[in-house]
Amino acid sequence: MQVLIRKAQIVDPQSAHHNKVTDLLIEDGVITRLAAGIRATADTVIDIPGLHVSPGWVDTLADYAEPGYEHRETIASGLAAAAAGGFTDVLLAPNTQPALSGQSAVQYVQQRAAGNAVSLRPIGAATRDVAGKELAEMLDMRTHGAIAFSDGWNPIQNSVLMMKALEYVSAFCGVVIQIPVDTALSAGGLMNEGPVSVSLGLAGVPHLAETLMVYRDTELARYTGSRLHISGISCAGSVDIIRRAKAEGVRVTCSVTPYHLALTDEVFRTYNSVYKVAPPLRAEADRQALIAALLDGTIDCIATHHRPHEWDAKTKELEYAATGMAIQQSAFPVIWNTLSSLLSPERLVQLFSVLPRDIFGLPQGTIAKGAAASLTLFVPEATTTLTKAQAKSAGINNPFIGQPLAGRIAGIVNNNKVYLNN
């Protein structure tokens, strides 16, 4: 298959063509030419005004629900949302039924994703059945394709078990991913604890439910010398702890979600359960601290925390509504709409591609002759208004549907396949 991309601005600090406008010819999944005015008869010609091309983006945590919860999402619909969102690689949460806590479960999701334009990277469960009681067979899962280890939406609460997980993965330089939620302190909480929750009479989740977990886990990472990735930090206190730990040589990295960068707890004045997430949306001071950390390098990458739900799981009172947003397809426009005046395309590509690949040991793609074509195509100067008809995810819980946002994903090229948004 031949693909010709015309007049694209390359965004790849590792490429000799960085910041240049050029044509790219891709043949059988490999970049064979980069030059102006390439003449070729290609199967697919991509000619979009203002097009930018970068190495393929990575979503470091998403949930596709299959097997076991196909009424929420399937691997097929999830990967379609990923491709439409510009992701060539997705790290898959282990919270399925059965959980991804053994070799057969890891291989099952890989087989279901085989042949897709998006590469699926399973996260193996750190504990058996993500139950937080005993360690899973992490080395066996690693051998069969697990990219990292986590209990996903069920953060490991037992300190001894967390320490053992970190010690276990250190033998093969693995990574443990933890979402920073102390479930005892957050129990019953519906939103951020603060003036807004008090004024609305809603039970709140204190910052302490997050910062205690961040502190505990960074100290355990310090003690074990292991690699820890904290996914979806939401408050200024967590930023401060992680910044200090990094300066002291602790092997900790972290991510933030698009919605924590774009929204605050003020949205709960609508009483709309679509905004119920964990960790919760915080106050404006926390959002500003996250943005500063994103710009100064304390935050390493973006995790969509794509967590789809069916209509009746979200369309109910806050107390009973499920937690999470199905936001993968909207990730880039949400971030670019929020931060385009502060964030350069180069830094954007570091957050979406370079750094997550480094953290999780994925191949560092580059845009050069002879390199495999794993590319994300985006148009910063365009706009996106995602409609329900255009949404690829089976989940209905995306608060940005119908909103005009800056930036547009044009598509991806990966695995010798092309996906283009209409």
Task: Please explain how this structure is put together.
It is a single chain. The longest helix is centred in the middle third of the chain and has 17 residues, at 208-224. Helix 4 (159-170) packs across helix 7 (208-224), helix 7 packs parallel to helix 8 and helix 8 (236-247) runs parallel beside helix 10. This protein has helices at 75-84, 103-113, 138-143, 159-170, 183-186, 195-200, 208-224, 236-247, 258-262, 284-296, 311-314, 331-339, 345-360, and strands spanning 2-10, 21-27, 30-35, 44-46, 52-55, 57-62, 87-92, 119-125, 148-150, 175-178, 191-192, 204-205, 227-230, 252-256, 301-302, 375-385, 404-414, 417-420. Strands 1, 2, 3, 4, 5, 16, 17 and 18 form an 8-stranded mixed β-sheet that branches. A 4-stranded parallel β-sheet has the order 6-7-8-9. The model has no long low-confidence stretch (mean pLDDT 97). It has 2 domains: 2-52 and 369-420, Urease, subunit C, domain 1; 55-360, Metal-dependent hydrolases (TIM Barrel), CATH 3.20.20.140. Strand 8, helix 3 (138-143) and strand 9 (148-150) form a beta-alpha-beta unit. 30% of the residues lie in helices and 23% in strands. It is of the alpha/beta class.
